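dumping this here before i forget
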Amino acid sequence: MSKWIKENLVLVAGILLPMLLVAGFFVLNKAPGILTDPPEYDFLLVAYRTDYQHPREFHLGFEVRDGQLRGKVTPLKDDHTHQNRQYAGIFRYHAAGNRFEEIVYELPEGLGELEDVLEFTVPETRHLELDSRSKSPDGFTFEYLGYRGRGGLLGEIFGMGGNRGNEYVLSKAGAHFNLPKPAADPYYYQHDMHFKGWITGDSESP
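structure:
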């Protein structure tokens, strides 16, 4: 056997080197995720959409202030007609189960006759303490990767190609943890989802 290998060294190298190269790419691609502990912190996400059949006369927005989620309603006047965030869903990511849960909330009354900007609290999230910094206490960031090329045959086989599902991930030290789609409702804009804050406290948690 060793004699045959010596006589066909070029052939053997031509077979083994591509295999070693593929194995190397596979290890480099998977190592960060294997060596990095999964995320521990929940977070809040707001996703926006427009219902063109049932348009509203105002624009919605949310921000974190003093550790609490707050909403803002802006009347849609002539100079605001380009804004399309008329509906918003609030979603809590559960790190333990890698899943999203929608938080159903109530908007203030009388918004159809609103003349000026109105800020409001969200009682349904009042028990949550939020940290709006981009990096979680355990070192993760919420990121949108956008479209990634499929990577050809190797990408299909070894998972090095694109993600045609949800393209949002939690990232840390080169590792990407894929997130599920927060809403089954297809009308929430895929590219209009916004991280609001890491949940660092929950007064209703058992």
